[in-house]
User: What shape does this take?
Amino acid sequence: MVNFYGKSFSSRLLIGSALYPSPAIMQSAIRASGAQIVTVSLRREAAGGKTGDAFWKLIRELGVTVLPNTAGCRTVREAVTTAKLARELFGTSWIKLEVIADNDTLQPDVVGLVEAAAILIKDGFEVFPYCTEDLSVAMRLVDAGCRVVMPWASPIGSARGITNRDALKLLRDRLPDITLVVDAGIGAPSHAAQALELGYDAVLLNTAIAKAEDPVGMANAFRLGIEAGRAAFEAGLMNARDFASPSTPVVGTPFWHAVS
Amino acid sequence: MRVTVNGESREIAADSITTLLSELEYEGTHFAIALNYDVVPKSRWTDTTLKSGDEIEIITPRQGG
Assistant: This one.
């Protein structure tokens, strides 16, 4: 079981709700993924529009826990207000906090992120910050009161997987009591498995499932990859070695002669 | 009076959030409202008075990752 702010979940996948070919495929893919937490966004509603109502109905039918996000926010003020709107709309103190620094890389603005996290935590929010893999940033977030930290693997939607394994491993080693989630950049079930093998508690992803040829099939593949990665972590992986080490016993090898 | 709704400048007759939603023909039920970057809870929509120059955001759930 994985714990987020005192709530336990059996699934270690947090899934996004965007970019699916259709609402029906979104629902089927989320069900197939086994995810119990779904992240949703907030956007302006046009006059006369009912887009929000229709989407909200689809999410409620899934019976999942909702994690609202501040996707697209570029300033502390925007992110804080969006988080408060989310609390009003969804009746939850959870917020996936994004403060974006740059349009091309969607790199988190870690300075604004720490500031916004501190403001929101003082206001009673339980913050899931989307950050880089930098240890000092993660430590600042923890100091501000975050009990969950979500570093990227690589840029959002890039499908490049874990590009800085050593830094992610360092975060895990140095923050043993924090729930760590790899958020963004996951492109394949093997990437997700790697994150879980490193001891990460969960992964959050969207595009890799939504943009697959068969999102429902890929959701199932991710479910299996994440289960395999976690099972491997719990079973204890062997250490890597510089040279070969025979798996078959040497003693008794036919025609074997000791080299003197 | 002139206010900004979802980033667009508009001339409105409404003087509260409830009457604004009705004037602009909002039909859904799942909105949250920010007035000048402060959230206005649904219970306050009727008694929150709008004034010229206000910035109103009408926000709803949407797909996100």
Remarks:
- The mean pLDDT of chain A is 95.
- Residues 215-235 of chain A form the longest helix (21 residues).
